[in-house]
Amino acid sequence: MANSDVRLALWSGTNFSVRRILFRRGGVAVRDLGAFRFDNVLSSFRLRNVAQSSEITLVLFSRINFQGAFRVFRGSQNVANLANFNFDNVTSSFIVVGRNLTNAEISQIQNTARPPQDILVIRQ
């Protein structure tokens, strides 16, 4: 299963500093980062698929339940400062999956507030 190869580390500070949350066991959808006391504090992250580095998508949303403004990151990458994407301290929910989501799939997620199947969904 592709989602088992997903790795995501989130930091509250720029340059991978301050408080960190790790997701190491697969795809996940977090409806409200308040569940981790991490709402509106995300500043940097490391994203990777350990099996196929290009097959991963992270979507950050500015509101809970996958709503509001969003930023999409495809492929394994390290982002040291989300201010470069005008999204520092903005994220309230996110989805990460071990494949490339299309823009149409992301629109459907926003319209239905339902993440893709076969991933862990965390609610507050």
Structure description:
This protein is mostly beta strands and 124 residues long. Helix content is 8%, strand content 40%. The chain has a five-stranded mixed sheet with strand order 6-5-8-3-9, with helices on one face. The chain has a four-stranded antiparallel sheet with strand order 2-1-4-7, with no helix packed on it. β1 and β2 (17-23) form a beta hairpin. The longest helix has 10 residues, at 103-112. The chain is globular.
Q: Helices and strands in order, then pairings?
A:
Blueprint: E1 6-13, E2 17-23, E3 28-30, E4 44-49, E5 57-63, E6 67-74, E7 77-79, E8 93-97, H1 103-112, E9 120-122
Parallel strand pairs: 3-9
Antiparallel strand pairs: 1-2, 1-4, 3-8, 4-7, 5-6, 5-8
Strand content: 35-45%
Number of H/I helices: 1
Largest sheet: 5 strands, mixed
First and last CA, distance: 26 Å
What is the H/E order? EEEEEEEEHE
Secondary-structure content class: mainly beta
What is the helical fraction, as a range of percent?
A: under 10%
Radius of gyration: 13 Å
Shape: globular
Oligomeric state of the chains?
single chain
Residue runs with pLDDT of under 50 for 5 or more positions: none
**Number of beta-strand segments:** 9
Q: Summarize model confidence as the mean pLDDT.
A: 95
Strand order of the largest sheet: 6-5-8-3-9
